[in-house]
Amino acid sequence: MKADRSGGVERQLRDAAPHALFDVARALIEARFDAVTVDLLMADYAMTRLQPVAKLPRTTTPLPLNSSAAGRAFGAQEPHIVAETGNRAPTVTVHLPVSVRGDRLGVLSVTLPGTEPAPTTVEALQEIADALAHEIMVAERDTDLFLLARRAERLTLAAEMQWQLLPGRSCSRTEYSIGAQLEPAYAIYGDNFDWSTSADHLTLSANNGMGEGIEAALLTNLAVNALRNARRAGLSLADQASLADQAVYGHYAGRQYLSMLLFRFHLPTGRAEVIDAGSPRVWRMRQGVVEPVELEAQLPLGMFEDTVYTPQHFQVEPGDRLLFVSDGVYDVPSPSGERYSERALIRAVRDTRLLPPSQVPRAVLEELAGHRGPGPSEDDAMVVCLDWHGRPDGSQQGTGQV
């Protein structure tokens, strides 16, 4: 029965028109569970609110991510149940995370009659939420509905380009978990990140773009797509950096360039290659000790013609947490002019040690905003958090090729 139920839902969602995907899901839930209401909420670009998926103008009020029942399900990535009793017939609302491979998209909130849903009902609703998440990722290629729901305000054109370039904001696999965030979310310029995984490798890049507005976004798009093109051609990490360097220099002739960290992790062993082409910087927390990872800085991509890049080797151990931060974190001044220091960053890393990687970047950037005080940010800020778990057998002594 379970297989028939979930399979039937998946088929109907796959057959739905992209813009009607949630309408189909809502009709299925209402029919099968006698639901009173069904709402789909998407996390906004700043990861501070849950925005309703509805035809404009919206009639549902956005919810704060940090202080709402739906936000609790989003943060914990587990169903959260809230019973409501009063003068009317009792109802219970089940808030369910909508996520794909660790990438947190939003929350599906279903209000049912009664006081407590059966565990099988919650399980069935979570299956629908999981199926809906997968279909949303596919539907976004063909409809703007879900992208519009993520917007608490209008994106600048540069920000539109940058968000469309990203692989997601979090992901997880047996060997690792990643979370990342950019600020100012609705007016980001050149900072960006990218990742890709295969059977035995994770390739991750974090860059600190040069310039402002459209020019910064164009520079980042050129560099990231050059790296992807080289990676998909099967080139080595050094050759990936060289091809991106040539692409940027060929277009800008040294007038603009891009600082980037490029990592390639070997999943069975934790061995990694890294190319430090300028910045951002890397911090590691191992057994409670937070310290910078000292790397040999090489030239930024596109600064000079035909730059040769040499990978350095790096080892991660199960339990390690790596934090990649751009200059927009270090250089933020307080209202009195005091710069956000390394000491403050170390404190932020320690304060967020119990949070999963998907929540760490937002927490660090919120502390940064508190340091900055009121007023807009003067520079992009990027935080990427990587937790290394290792392979289930615990073996990190392998000598597989990196």
UniProtKB/TrEMBL annotation:
Which keywords accompany this UniProt record?
Hydrolase
> What Enzyme Commission number(s) appear in the record?
3.1.3.16
Record protein name field: PP2C family protein-serine/threonine phosphatase
